[in-house]
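Reviewers of the previous submission asked for a worked example of the structure-prediction workflow described in the proposal, so we include one complete record here. The input consisted solely of the amino acid sequence. No template or homolog information was supplied to the procedure at any stage.
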Amino acid sequence: MKDEYLLDILFSFFLFFFHIFCDDDTMYGLIWLFLFISNCYHNSEKE
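From that input alone, the workflow returned the following structure tokens.
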């Protein structure tokens, strides 16, 4: 199993639990931040 898939799964669980405690605006911010970091991570992997 690749690390990037494991990170995605862990983050999915994190978002699920975080959603219980946070409002939607915080969730959208976290999702955007994760997508940004994930994109940078994948770009650095290609090089």
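Residues 29 and 41 are 18 Å apart (CA to CA). We consider this example representative of the routine output the project will generate in years two and three.
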